[in-house]
């Protein structure tokens, strides 16, 4: 159960004042929180586990990403709860409590950046930092009905951030307001303010939408109508992502199994990609933390304990193939990045959609989200009034 105060979002509260300035800064007057894997000078970075906190000293410097936000005028008010060692997507923590989802109080908040997402959704801060290795910003943003952004890999410094699996680790951030989401991104990525550029096409991955229990029209119609209103309907194209991966990522075939071969909707290739990603993530987690886990034998929550020990016992078999899969996929999809946009409620639960753009197009995507967001919310409101 989450702590009653502050929706259980915070590990600890403190105040880091923004850098003094004689002129208005881009984030002046805004508050933020950071996931408990970012170093803050003088505080122990707890990594979601009390045994980790007990066996590690206080940080002697602050992560550059946090410093850049302070220099831009924002005030940090504390560290947020996270899943243990960032190795879950649920948002639960047996030691510190599970942050309470303000949008759906009887449901989990999603993880591993659960506390950061909840702090934003509960309006305790204006924005918050998380990290995203396999959806740990995008998933809790969706669960909590807010905006979440995962930038291009390696674009924002992860110095002073405890790694999970470096091939996939990326920092990320949450906001309720697309304007703030954009401003934070431009500070973190050191992007200039430029006029928005219209997209040349928007591709709908039809096979991925078929996996959802929510009617696909409920997910895509607000986007279609907003794009049509802003840019014209000819931009929207349809594709089968599974077929594209089969053609462009030949190394994934080594991860095909009878189980994945039985899958429908051409998702067999995506299931195989997931297997390759999971293996490489386990291997890199073991390299980063296997010795500590084996030596300390930390107290870990149920389910998570088995997952972490399975990673510690993994071997380097097929790791070279995993790297080939990753290289081919990046070349094929140009290292996609993503942002989660809330689409209102369905059966009284939050719904979201992810937009992706090619590597390095972060500024373009932030501007696009800001342009689309208001129109999408209007279309969602119309759909909800009609009972969709």
Automatic annotation (TrEMBL):
GO MF entries: hydrolase activity, acting on carbon-nitrogen (but not peptide) bonds, in linear amides
InterPro entries: Amidase_CS, Amidase_dom, AS_sf
Domain Amidase: 22-177
Recorded superkingdom: Eukaryota
One Pfam family it belongs to: Amidase
Similarity comment: family membership: Belongs to the amidase family.
Protein name as annotated: Amidase domain-containing protein
């Amino acid at each position: 159960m989450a702590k009653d105060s502050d929706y259980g979002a915070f590990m600890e509260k403190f105040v880091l004042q923004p850098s003094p300035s004689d002129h208005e800064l881009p984030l002046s007057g805004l508050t933020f929180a950071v996931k408990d894997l970012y170093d803050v000078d003088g505080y122990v970075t707890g990594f979601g586990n009390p045994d980790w906190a007990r066996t590690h000293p206080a940080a002697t410097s602050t992560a550059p990403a946090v410093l850049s936000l302070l220099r831009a005028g924002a005030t940090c008010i504390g560290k947020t709860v996270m899943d243990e060692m960032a190795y879950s997507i649920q948002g639960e923590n047996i030691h510190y409590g599970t942050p309470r989802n303000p949008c759906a109080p009887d449901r989990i908040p999603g993880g591993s950046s659960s506390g950061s997402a909840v702090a934003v959704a509960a309006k305790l801060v204006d924005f918050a930092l998380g990290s995203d290795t396999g959806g740990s910003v995008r998933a809790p943003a969706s669960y909590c009905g807010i905006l979440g952004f995962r930038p291009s890999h390696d674009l924002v410094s992860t110095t002073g951030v405890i790694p999970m699996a470096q091939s996939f680790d990326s920092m990320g951030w949450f906001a309720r307001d697309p304007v703030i989401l954009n401003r934070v991104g431009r500070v973190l990525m050191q992007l200039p303010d430029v006029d928005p550029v219209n997209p040349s096409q928007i591709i709908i991955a039809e096979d991925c939408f078929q996996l959802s229990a929510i009617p696909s029209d409920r997910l895509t119609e607000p986007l279609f109508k907003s794009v049509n209103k802003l840019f014209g309907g000819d931009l929207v194209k349809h594709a089968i992502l599974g077929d594209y991966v089969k053609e462009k990522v030949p190394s994934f075939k080594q991860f095909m199994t009878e189980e994945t071969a039985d899958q429908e909707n051409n998702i067999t290739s995506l299931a195989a990609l997931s297997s390759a990603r999971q293996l490489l993530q386990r291997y890199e987690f073991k390299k980063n933390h296997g010795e500590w886990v084996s030596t300390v034998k930390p107290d870990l929550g149920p389910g998570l304990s088995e997952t972490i020990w399975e990673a510690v016992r993994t071997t380097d078999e097929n790791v070279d193939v995993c790297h080939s899969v990753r290289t081919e996929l990046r070349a094929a999809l140009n290292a996609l990045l993503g942002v989660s946009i809330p689409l209102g409620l369905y059966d009284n639960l939050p719904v979201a959609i992810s937009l992706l753009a090619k590597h390095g197009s972060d500024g373009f995507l932030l501007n696009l989200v800001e342009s689309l967001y208001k129109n999408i919310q209007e279309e969602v409101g119309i759909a909800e009034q009609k009972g969709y």
